Amino acid sequence: MGRCAQRDGVACSHRRSDDLQLRRCRVDEQLSQLAHEAPIAVFLEECCCVEASHTQIMTDTALADLASRMATARRVTAMTGAGVSAASGVPTFRGADGLWRRYRPEDLATPVAFAHDPSLVWEWYAWRREQVAACRPNAAHNVLARWSQHDGFRLITQNVDDLHGRAGTRGLVRLHGSIWELKCFKPCANGERPWRDERVPLPEQPPLCPHCGGLARPAVVWFGESLDSAVVDRAFEATTCDVFLTIGTSAVVYPAAGFVDEARAKGAFTVEINTETTPASSCVDLSLIGPAEEILPSIEQLLAESK
Ligand code: OAD
Questions:
Q1: Together in a domain, 172 and 304
Q2: How far is the CA of 274 from the centre of ligand 1 (A)?
Q3: Residues labelled catalytic
Q4: C-alpha to C-alpha distance for 189 and 210, rounded to whole angstroms
Q5: Which of 46, 95, 190, 238 could form an S-S bond across to 211 if both were Cys, CB 3.0 to 4.6 Å?
Q6: What angle do CA 64, 36, 2 make, to 5 degrees?
Q7: Ligand 1 atom closest to Cα of residue 105
Q8: Are residues 282 and 185 in the same domain?
Q9: For the whole model, what pTM was predicted?
C-alpha cells in the first residue's frame, strides 16, 4: 500500500465522526492494527491529501503511542545520520544541497584518492572541520544525549562531526569514526591507533604522523574500507532492543542501513524520523516525516508527561 493511500484510508474513515475522543480511539485502533501489518507514515506538516486537523490527530496519537512504548521499553536504540546535524548547519551528503552533489566521493573519500592527492583530500577535510567547529549541537542531539544517561538506551551514529559527543552523549557507537581524530596513513605500528586533534586550522597541512613522520589521515571510514569490527559488533548487539529509531539517515549506506531491518527481525518496534521518505520508510512500523530537532523534543515531552 502506498503512503498516501494509507493516510487517505485512515483520514476518510474518521471524517464522518464529530467526536474527537472517538476519533482518537479509532485512530489508535487503526494505528495498532496497522503497526502489525504495514508501516504508518505520519506527516508532521500539513499535507495536500490530509486535513490539517486530522494530521494533528494522527501526529498526536502516533507520538503518544511511541512515547508509551518507549516508557515501558527495557531497551531503546537510536541510530542517526547526517540529517540529525542539519539543523546545526552541518551539510548532509545527499539531497539537493548534499556534499555528494558538489563533490565526488571518489576524489575525496577513498584511500586511492588520498594516496593520489593528500593535499586535496586534507583541504576538503580541513574545510569540513572548520565548518563543524562553528556548529553547535541542536535540540535533537540534546534529547538523545539526555536519553543516553538512562541504562538501556544506546546510540549508534554514522556521523563523524562528534556533535553527539559535544552534547554529552554517553556510550556512543561511532560507526564511521570522527573528523576530530587522525591516524597514520601507512599505518606505522604506533600510528594505527587514532589520536585526537581538534585544532582549527591544523598547523601543518597535510598533517604528519607524530610516530613515524609519514602522512596522517582523518580517522574516518572511507569508501571501500572496512568498518572496525568491534564497533560493528557493538552496533549489531544494540539492534536487540524493544524500540529502534532510525533518525536523519538516507538509509543507503551499509551496514548501517541494515540495522533497522535487523532490529525489526529481532522483534523491535521500528521507527523512522526523517524529513522525507527513504528506502527504510516502507519497512518500518512507524514513519514520522518531519525534522528530528522538532520530533525528538515532542517525544521527550510526552515521555515526561507520562511519568
Ligand atoms: P545523507 O546525507 O545520505 O542523508 C541525510 C538524511 O537526513 C536524508 O534522508 C534527509 O532527508 C534527512 N534529513 C535532512 N534534514 C533532516 C532533519 N532536520 N531531520 C531529520 N532528517 C533530516 O546522510 P547519511 O544517511 O548519514 O559515509 O549518509 C550515510 C553515510 O554516507 C555517511 O556517514 C557518509 C556518507 O557518505 C561516510 O562518511 C563513510
A1: yes
A2: 9
A3: 176
A4: 12
A5: 190
A6: 90
A7: 36
A8: no
A9: 0.84
